[in-house]
Each structure stands twice: as structure tokens, then as C-alpha cells.
Task: structure prediction
Amino acid sequence: MQIKRKPQGSAQTGSGLEALRLNGQLHSLTRRAERLTPHVFILPAVLVILALAIFPLIISLYMSFSRLRFVPGGFKIDFVGLANYRKLLVGSEKTHFLGVLADPSPVGWLVFIIIAVLLVISLARYIRRGKFSAGELVWRSLATVVIGSGVWLLVRTLGSGGRPGTVVVTLIYVFVGIFFQYVLGLGLAWLTTQGLPGRRLFRTIFLLPMMITTVGIAYLFRMLTDTGKGPCNPIWQVLGLADFSWVNHPWGGARGGHDWGHLAMDTFHVYCAFSCPGESID
Result:
């Protein structure tokens, strides 16, 4: 009588394949978790930006196509389409938005012609290269038209008999302000790096505005977290923390200031450690 035995090699091979399959799945899950981890960490910042920047921008864009009216018991929003923009560009608000347009002077004509020729030459050289997509060509052409229109508006409103509107005033403040800020900042930074007497005192004076900003943010945070009359008061009432001054309380000060500050420092130190290269660099 012959007894048939099950080959042990096939059983071992099957268990080995199963182990390899499990290891492959585990490795795949690990790699997926590693890819998702950075997104999870930046998700709170993205949500804050969406809530405080993108969402209000979208609401403002919608409100520009609407008309707000105060009615008994509240307000009413009516969608009016392009009526607001029509009023700004060609309607009753044109003189306030664009300004009072006058005939350009000879100097104004010369400035506009020079800038227009430079814009056309730049666009022609860009097209002549031939390395562009349709979208890039549209954006470059649109930028050329916008810059040319802006120069034409400046020439007609800043000349004799004209009066600049809010658009021109805003452009002047932005570009002139940014130019002088960077020039002055670069000059002061260069002076504070030279071996001049009193440079440490001036460094401290230059840093005072930044510290004042931090103090202002601290007071704003304190007002936001005020459990008595702050904007989050309904939330504190639901949580049972109404009329509780956590800033003046020893426990709240220790937990909110000491622990929170150390948490930020520890996170920064660990992040720096993880960001170091695998091998030390001399």
C-alpha cells in the first residue's frame, strides 16, 4: 500500500508567495501614507487660507455683480449683472473711477507713442521666436493691451485739464510706494552692515515696526478669544467656558503660552532634524 504525501515544497512556495504579497501591500500602503502625510499637515493651513482669503474673494466677486439694499429687518442682495461695471466705466461713477479725461499734450503723445512702440516690438519679438502656446500668446497680448491702456489713461488724466481717478491714484501709490520702499530698504540694510558707529542702535530701531506688528497680533488674538464679549462668545457658551478669562488665569496662561510656545519650537526643531541630509556634510 502506497501512501501519497503532499509535497512540502509547494506548501512552502505558497506561503512564501503569500508573504511576498503581504509585504508588497504593506510597502504600498506605507508609500501611500508617506505621500499623504505632507498633505495632511498642510491641510489646516490650506483651510485657513480658503476661509480667510479665497472665500472672501469669491464673495466679493459675486457682490460686484449684485446690489446691496438695506430693508426693514436686514438687507437684500439683488443680482444686477454688469450694471455696476457699466456704471464705473461709462456711467455716473466714471469720473470718480477713471478720472476726468483731457486731450494729451505733445509730451504726453510722445510718451505714449514710445511706450506703445516698445510694447509692440516686445510682442513681435515674442511671436517671432515661435516657441509659445496659444494660451501664452493670449496672455501676452492681453498684458500688452492692458499696459497700453493704462499708459493712455495716465497720459489723459495727468495732463493739463485732466484729473486722476481712483484707478490712477491706486496705481501711483502701489508702484511708486513699492519702488521707494525697496530702494530705501536696500540702502538702509546696506548701511547697517557697514562698520559705522551706532549701527546696532539703528538695527534695533528698524526692527521696532516688526515687533509692533507682533504686539498688535497678540492683542487681536486676545480679543478674538475673549470669552465674555468676543466674536467666538457663542462657541464658548456652548462649551461652558463663557465669562472665563483664560489669559489672566494661571492655568490658562501656562497652557496657552508656555506649552503652545514649546510645541512650536519642538515642531521646528524636529522639522529641521528631518530636513537634514542622510550623510553629514563638512
In short: The chain is about 70% helix and 5% strand.
